[in-house]
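Exercise 7. Given the encoded structure of a 353-residue chain, write a plausible sequence.
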């Protein structure tokens, strides 16, 4: 029966499926309703070893859980890497066939979709992060009302319930005062929800075995540990610390050209250093924030305080020293998580010397 390669172009109401055989010949095309039962029945009806791919998107996590049990291989591919889809005509059937062809040729870059063990924690972390963002947005709107009327509101006193009436009295326009009251009510509700989300997130994160290991790292508090556990899921995804740096947005992008020249008939590499082009643009934004904020705390906290000071003594610019410290914290996190070792302050100090 051989192998079958299925490309799915998924949309909210419909999904176009294209099936190719081992030689790249089109076996069939079908238009399916984007429902679990219909997609599952379609794949079960195919003979042979079935390989399926579709692009990362809104329905990707849901569809991955549906398709994975009934086929031999599922690749949720990174749409940023699928340059072939941007060439020539674009349509649902065309895209589905191109995805199937890329899958058959092994040219797709997969997107990791985690394990069932961290699915609950991932949702709780996402809820907490969203509530933090919503709370910050409302707080900014509250201050914008006072600043727009030249009323000084530095600090956090403007948000506290105990002084709220005094602040509202400074707003003489009835409509503006009413809008501020609505924002205060919204802020109180969000704060309550954020506390509940935080409590549920921390309770779930502490159930994971890796929590106790990562808790040893001084600059990683409970919230940061929960976010790392949810986003990384498994440290075995990363073979080296450099791969982890790239995932966290801490990898330096370099460019070089004409790297070799011939001397006496033998190829030799030129001694000039490659040009740097900043940090990698494709990364997990939450993890980058976690490790950069951890580095800011590490500047004033042992043992990373001494590590950072020694970097400055070597002549490294402060911003580059902070980046190096963030990379160090990420490397320590990955190593301890993989090996289950205890955190050793002396090792950090010795490596900085």
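Solution.
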């Amino acid at each position: 029966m051989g192998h079958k390669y299925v490309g799915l172009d998924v949309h909210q109401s419909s999904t176009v499926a294209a099936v190719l055989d081992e030689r790249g010949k089109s076996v069939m095309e079908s238009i399916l309703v984007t429902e679990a039962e219909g997609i599952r029945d379609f794949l079960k009806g195919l003979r042979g070893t079935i390989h399926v791919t579709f692009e990362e998107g809104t329905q990707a996590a849901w569809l991955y859980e549906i398709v994975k049990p009934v086929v031999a291989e599922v690749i949720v591919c990174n749409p940023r890497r699928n340059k072939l889809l941007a060439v020539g005509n674009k349509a649902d059937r065309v895209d589905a066939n191109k995805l199937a062809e890329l899958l058959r040729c092994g040219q797709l870059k997969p997107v990791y979709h985690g394990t069932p063990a961290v699915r609950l924690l991932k949702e709780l972390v996402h809820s907490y992060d969203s509530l933090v963002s919503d709370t910050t947005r409302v707080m900014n709107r509250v201050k914008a009302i006072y600043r727009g009327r030249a009323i000084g509101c530095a600090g956090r006193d403007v948000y506290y319930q105990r002084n709220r009436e005094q602040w509202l009295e400074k707003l003489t326009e009835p409509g503006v005062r009413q809008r501020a009251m609505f924002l205060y009510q919204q802020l109180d509700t969000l704060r309550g929800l954020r506390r509940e989300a935080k409590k549920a997130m921390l309770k779930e994160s502490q159930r994971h075995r890796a929590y106790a290991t990562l808790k040893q790292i001084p600059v990683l508090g409970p919230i940061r540990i929960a976010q790392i556990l949810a986003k990384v899921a498994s440290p075995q995804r990363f073979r080296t610390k450099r791969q982890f740096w790239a995932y966290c947005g801490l990898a330096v992008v370099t460019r070089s050209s004409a790297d070799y020249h011939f001397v006496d008939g033998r190829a030799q590499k030129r001694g000039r250093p490659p040009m740097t082009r900043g940090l990698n643009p494709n990364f997990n934004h939450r993890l980058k924030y976690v490790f950069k904020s951890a580095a800011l705390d590490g500047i004033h906290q042992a043992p990373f305080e001494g590590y950072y000071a020694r970097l400055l003594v070597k002549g490294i610019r402060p911003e580059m020293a902070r980046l190096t410290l963030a990379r160090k914290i990420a490397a320590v996190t990955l190593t301890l998580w993989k090996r289950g070792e205890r955190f050793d302050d002396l090792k950090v100090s010795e490596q900085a010397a």
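Remark. Strands lie at 3-10, 14-20, 26-33, 49-55, 73-77, 252-255, 260-263, 266-269, 275-279. Students should compare their own answers with the one above.
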